[in-house]
Amino acid sequence: MAITDRTAEVLSLLLCKLSLSRSLEDLLDDYKHARPFPHLLLDNLFPGVILDSILDELPPASSEKWVNHRNEQVIKSNLRSAVDLEEHAYELLSTLHSAAFLYFLTEITGIKGLLPDPYLGGAGYHVIHEGGKFEVHADRNTDYHCGLHRRLVMMVYLNKAWRPEFGGQLELWNQDATRCEKVIDPIFNRTVIFEIDDHNFHAVRPVASGSGAVRKAFAAYFHTADRGIVPHNSVYAPSIYRDNDGVIHRAARATLPPFIWGGYRN
Questions:
Q1: Spatial distance between the Cα atoms of 18 and 215, rounded to a whole number of angstroms
Q2: Contacts by 9-13, CB closer than 8 A, 24 or more apart
Q3: For a tag on the chain, would you pick the N or C end, based on fewer CB atoms within 10 A?
Q4: What is the pTM (predicted TM-score) of this model?
């Protein structure tokens, strides 16, 4: 379908050239009617050369720039701070936080008054090594730094020659977190945008052990200044739908004295 004049006009406002195969009107319709909750999947949205450059700037695993999450629900690494970005990643982030890009997001989601996330709270580079995962959850609804209401997350995948057997797929689940309804492979230059809500459950499948694969993405959150929001952290799926080993570990940690729990873990 031909790109409309309105689409061309909106894209012309951006300093970074975006590639769309459908009109803004069609994308908005797709977003609103997507199941199991509002989302969009956009392939080759950004110039590949830009993503190549920020991939080259990815800090090594040994760097102190990472925050490493290691618990029963999540095993992954996040960039520690927005000030740790190198030149090309900073340029991409500047584009994502620009007024023109925020208007673009409003056009394709219908959410007005979007605000950026200059501190990259929980955003920036996301890396999951072999055995890493993120169990079924709904995202935290507010920003730690300024208390704004989180409305959208954007994930730009940076994985070249990624194969399905590597795992690491993004899963979108139904509203009571009992059933996975959509699976998305994290291939290079694939962008996923979805709405954050207490019932918008999603997960990342484990990255296969022995695959040598490292799942890489660049994430950004977008907010609105809503009032009356009751803040909460990530909401995980009911334990009945998790693996039994995880349930046993959680129960043991909650009931055993620390010195016994330490021995139990080992």
A1: 24
A2: 10/100, 10/103, 10/104, 10/107, 11/104, 13/100, 13/103, 13/104
A3: C
A4: 0.84
**Mean pLDDT of the 89-109 span:** 96
Query: Taking the alpha carbons of 27, 45, 126, 242 in that order, is the dihedral positive or negative?
Result: positive
- The CATH topology of domain 5-240 is Jelly Rolls (2.60.120)
Q: What's at 175, amino acid-wise?
A: Q
Residue with tokens 């701070």: 81
Domain ranges in the chain are: 5-240
* CA count, 13 A, side-chain hemisphere, 142: 14
User: What pLDDT score does 94 carry?
Assistant: 95
| Tokens, residue 117 | 């996330």
> Encoding tokens for residue 121?
């709270």
Classify each residue of 78-99 as buried b or exposed e, where b means 16 or more C-beta atoms within 10 Å of its C-beta: bbbebebbeebbebbbebbbbe
Residue 246 has pLDDT above 60, yes or no: no
